[in-house]
Amino acid sequence: MKLLAIETSCDETAVAILEASGDENGATFSVLGNSLLSQIDLHRPYGGVFPALAKREHAKNLVPLLTSSLEEAGLLIEDAQIIPEETREKLSTLLTREPELAEAFLAALTEIERPDIDAIAVTAGPGLEPALWVGVNFARALSLVWNIPIVAVNHMEGHMLSALATRNEDGTLVIPKNELPLLGLLISGGHTEFVLMKEWLSYELIGTTRDDAVGEAFDKVARMMNLPYPGGPEIDRLAGHEREDTNPFVLPRPMLDAPNCDFSFSGLKTAVLYLIKERGELDDIQKQQMARAFVDAVCDVLWGKTSRALEETAAQTFVIGGGVAASSQIRAMFEKRIPESHPQVTLRIPSRELTTDNALMTGMAGYFRALRKEFADVETLRANGNLRVAD
Ligand code: KG4
Ligand code: ZN
C-alpha cells in the first residue's frame, strides 16, 4: 500500500510517501519521499509557537513539500488537469471559511496528475487547532480531486507506533512484532502520558500529567535561563557537560512518592524560577549545573513512575516516544535502568529523527488504520486539538 502522509500539528510542516506492507506481526515501510520544513526559526522571536504564523506557514509550504515528496518518489507528473466543476464546488463548500486556501490548492492540483497512491494519512489531532486544520483541509482537497481515501491519524498514536520502528541499512523502516502488553511513555511539548496497549491499536491511559507537559517544562525552564526556543535541545546540550564539583542546585521530584502513575512538572519549574531569582542571572557554569539538576529531577520522576507502571501493567515491551525522547540523558537513563531492574521487558527507543514531529509517523500509524479500513468521511472529517488516544 502506498500512503501519502501529511503532518501539520505544530510548527513542523511535513509530507512523506511510504510504501507499506505487513501487519502487527511485522511491518515494513519504504520511504519513497520525505520532506519537512521546520518553522522553529520563525517562532523563536516569540519564545514559543505563534498559532497564526504556524497556520500561514503550513498553508504556504504544503504544496511545495507535496511536489518535492512526489518528485523524490518518482510519482510526480506535471501536466495540465481538468478538475470537474462539481469537485471544485464541493471543495469550496467544505472550505467555506478558507476560500483562498481552496483556490490555492485547486490551482496547484490543476498542474499535477493523480499519483499512484492508495491512501492519504493526515494528522487530525491533538495539536494546535488552526495548524491542524490546514493539513486536514489539504488532505480533503487531495482526496476529492484525486479520489483517494483519507485516514485520520492521532498524533500521539503516530508518536507511539513510529517509536517502535528501526531503520534497516537500506533506509527501510521496520516495526517488528511486539510482545503485549506494550507500555508507552509519550513525552512531548503538549503531552506526558503512559499509554498501555493490551491489544494492538487499543489504548488505555495509565497516567498523565496534572499540569505541565515535560517538554513544556524543558521549554519554560530554558526560557528562564535566557536560552532560545525550543529549550529541550538547549537544556540537553548544557546538561551533557561534564562537571567535577557537586551540583549546588537541589530540585524537588514532584509526585514521585504518590501512589499512582501521574506526573506534575509545574512545581519543578517554579523551584527553578525561585533559585534563579535568588541567584540573579546564572553564569555559564551555573546554567550547566541548573540544566543538569533539572534533567536529573525529570529523570528520577520518569524512572520512578515508569518502574511503577511496568509493575502494575506487567508490560512486556516499553517504548518512549515524542520530542522529549530525543533527550540524551533520558535515553541513557532508560537504556541503563530497564535491563537492570526489569530484564524481562524489551526496551524500544526510537532514533532521534523519529522522536520529533515528522510525517513518517503519520504514515506509519495511518497504515495500520488503513489496513482496518478505518477511512474518514471527507465531509465530516474535523481537526481536533484535544483528540485523545485513550481515556
Ligand atoms: O513531539 P514534539 O516534536 O512536538 C509535540 O508534539 O509537542 O515535541 C517537542 C518537544 C519540545 O518541548 C522540545 O523542547 C522537546 O520536545 N525536545 C527535547 C529535545 N528535543 C526536543 N527535549 C529534551 N531534549 C531534547 N534533545
Ligand atoms: Zn509531537
Question: What's the layout of helices and strands?
Answer:
Elements: E1 2-7, E2 12-23, E3 26-38, H1 40-43, H2 51-72, H3 85-94, H4 99-109, E4 119-125, H5 129-146, E5 150-154, H6 155-162, E6 166-167, E7 173-176, E8 182-187, E9 192-199, E10 202-208, H7 214-224, H8 231-239, H9 266-279, H10 284-313, E11 317-321, H11 328-341, E12 346-348, H12 359-371
Parallel strand pairs: 1-4, 4-5, 8-11, 11-12
Antiparallel strand pairs: 1-2, 2-3, 3-7, 6-7, 8-9, 9-10
Bound molecules: 5'-O-[(R)-(carboxyoxy)(hydroxy)phosphoryl]adenosine (KG4) and zinc ion.
Concise account of the structure shown:
By secondary structure, the protein is of the alpha/beta class. The protein is about 40% helix and about 20% strand.
**Secondary-structure content class:** alpha/beta
Mean pLDDT: 96
Bound molecules: 5'-O-[(R)-(carboxyoxy)(hydroxy)phosphoryl]adenosine, zinc ion
Order of helices and strands: EEEHHHHEHEHEEEEEHHHHEHEH
> How much helicity do the residues have?
40-55%
Strand content: 15-25%
Number of DSSP helical runs = 12
Largest sheet: 7 strands, mixed
Spatial separation of the terminal alpha carbons: 31 Å
Rounded Rg: 22 Å
Shape: globular
Question: Could you name the ranges where pLDDT drops below 50 across 5 or more consecutive residues?
Answer: none
Strands across the major sheet, in which order?
5-4-1-2-3-7-6
Total beta strands: 12
